[in-house]
Amino acid sequence: xxxxxxxxxxxxxxxxxxxxxxxxxxxxxxxxxxxxxxxxxxxxxxxxxxxxxxxxxxxxxxxxxxxxxxxxxxxxxxxxxxxxxxxxxxxxxxxxxxxxxxxxxxxxxxxxxxxxxxxxxxxxxxxxxxxxxxxxxxxxxxxxxxxxxxxxxxxxxxxxxxxxxxxxxxxxxxxxxxxxxxxxxxxxxxxxxxxxxxxxxxxxxxxxxxxxxxxxxxx
Length: 219
Ligand code: BG6
Ligand code: MG
What we know:
By secondary structure, the protein is an alpha/beta fold.
């Protein structure tokens, strides 16, 4: 096995099913401001930072907020989101994720988290995963939101693997674009129709077998 390979996992919608909670919290925010957002619009919010998400939503709703109101809405959205994630445990890790993490650990392939979320560390703690990662890079560590590749480039650097040798698991269009921009191998987790820019797409981790991972790691 090629030992100079590394893996980077996105968090929301890849390791845990929190993408739906982000959507519900953003939808409530929009509804409270007097408009709605669709699931199709939500695809454009996945992977995107909290600030950029609110900017997009306000544009869709044709609304302008003062800086104070903007900050207040972001805080309210996050408080609402936290009510969804507060009771998470390791039972909430998505099917197949544990198997792949164990496989990487057994084969000493370093893996990192590359998430836009400022809540990422809290979720990794709740799900007992934080100690398993060789590095964690999240929304607190970056200044540029996906599709900018910053988060993945920092993660690659932290696990000391050249970016072109990294494999990224992502559920968002912005994240797939970020991985591609970083010259990494992008693996979309979700629907092919949304994630067609990814090098490979799987519905979820239960569809990915060890031979496929081995092939990528040996490439
Ligand atoms: C990403 C999610 O992982 O993190 C986005 O896909 C979310 O939906 C973004 O907006 C920022 O998350 P947080 O937890 O910092 O608001
Ligand atoms: Mg995601």
